[in-house]
Amino acid sequence: MAASVAVGTITVSAFVARAVLTRQAALARRRIGKPWGEVAVDADRLWRAKLPGEPIELVVVGDSIAAGLGAHRPKDALGARLAKGIAAFLRRPVQLRTLAVVGAESQDLARQLDRLPEDYRPDVAVIIVGGNDVTHRTPVSAAAADLEDAVRRLRATGAAVVVGTCPDLGALRPVPQPLRSLGAQASRQLAHAQASAARRAGARVVSLRRTVGPMFVENPDDMFGLDRFHPSALGYRRTAEALVPEIVAALAEQTLRRD
């Protein structure tokens, strides 16, 4: 009888906990909303075209952060920030091609790469994905495996690859507690698995939680955009600044291998 009561208590507690988290998730969605819809600005173009030399081909793959959702001007989108940063380091123009899609999960990376022409050979690819895997409760192992497959596929084209791991969802103020703490824990677990998978496949890794996460926590009004979920122009700038040195290093490493 005591065992039956204990099991019943645990079941009720679990039901209550799920109900609370479901209500909090609905509240977070209402708070965040979709002030920019689901289409990011189009930043695909040749950046710093007046610089000498052959353009560096940059591909950006992943979710809404990779797509630059929330940037009001093309030059503020993450891809554009990356292109300008690379151009400044290497003194060469950069051709940006964005495959990232708002709302994408890791399982969508393959479909994004399917959009590349068969004869296209990027010099470097940047992948940022994971937030939607957390919110959709995708198993960590499955999300990491999909990321690893995408990295291997890009590496097979000869591209250098840099992965920005899942951001810290604990920085999202519109998400109430305890859901925010659970999101923080889940995003850390996924980021750790992503880092291992990306390195196995030959990518360089940038922990967005460590490099820019504290900035979003300490200065949310400036780092987040209107929805308090996606980065602002400053947030994208700081994220790009964390990624560009690794991109340049990856390109240099790739050049040495070819030589």
Secondary-structure map:
Elements lengths: L1 H31 L13 E2 L8 E7 L1 H4 L10 H13 L3 E5 L10 H6 L9 E5 L2 H5 L4 H17 L3 E5 L14 H22 L3 E3 L1 H4 L1 H6 L1 H4 L9 H26 L1
Parallel strand pairs: 2-3, 2-4, 4-5, 5-6
Antiparallel strand pairs: 1-3
Distance between the termini: 74 Å
Give the SSE order as H and E letters: HEEHHEHEHHEHEHHHH
What's the number of structural domains? 1
Mean pLDDT: 86
Could you describe the 3D structure shown?
This protein is of the alpha/beta class and 259 residues long. 43% of the residues are buried. The protein has a single domain, classed as SGNH hydrolase (Rossmann fold, 3-Layer(aba) Sandwich), CATH 3.40.50. A 6-stranded mixed β-sheet has the order 1-3-2-4-5-6, sandwiched between helices. The protein is 53% helix and 10% strand. The protein starts with a helix and ends with a helix. The protein has helices spanning 2-32, 64-67, 78-90, 109-114, 131-135, 140-156, 179-200, 208-211, 213-218, 220-223, 233-258; strands at 46-47, 56-62, 94-98, 124-128, 160-164, 204-206. Mean pLDDT is 86; it is low at 2-33.
Task: Identify the notable features of this structure and list them briefly.
single chain, 259 residues, alpha/beta, Rossmann fold, 6-stranded mixed beta sheet, globular, disordered N terminus
